[in-house]
Specification:
This protein has about 120 residues and is mostly helical. It has one domain. It is built from two helices and no strands. It has helices at about 1-95, 95-120. The radius of gyration is 43 Å and the shape is elongated.
Length: about 120
């Protein structure tokens, strides 16, 4: 019976050693896979960094261009409105009675429009 016990013990020990070796091999493979993934990510980051930098710079340029265009348009609108104000002042100075009548007519039209809207809303 001791031969059977020794054979079983040897077989169990052999299975244990094989399992331990398989675990060590799996651990080495896992470390190698992790190292490979880290290298791949580092490489991808290195490749993407210049692209991201260019995209960021281009976006800043577009934002700056948009800001400059908006500022330019605001200046144009300011000039136009100033010219309209000056033109209106000149007309009022040249034609005060006609200007007063036009203002009264516009006021009456606005009041009539407001009244129509109010009546329709209350229906």
């Amino acid at each position: 019976m001791s031969e059977l016990s020794n054979a079983t013990s040897a077989t169990t020990s052999e299975h244990f050693n094989r399992a331990a070796a398989a675990l060590k091999a799996a651990e080495r493979d896992a470390h190698a896979a992790i190292d490979c993934a880290v290298d791949g990510l580092a490489s991808a980051y290195g490749d993407a960094k210049p692209l991201l930098s260019r995209v960021s710079e281009r976006a800043r340029g577009y934002a700056s261009d948009g800001y400059d265009a908006a500022r330019e348009q605001a200046a144009v609108l300011r000039d136009r409105s100033q010219k309209a104000v000056e033109s209106t002042r000149g007309y009022v100075q040249d034609e005060p009675i006609k200007s007063l009548l036009i203002a009264a007519a516009v006021g009456a039209a606005v009041i009539a429009l407001v009244e129509v809207v109010r009546v329709r809303r209350n229906r």
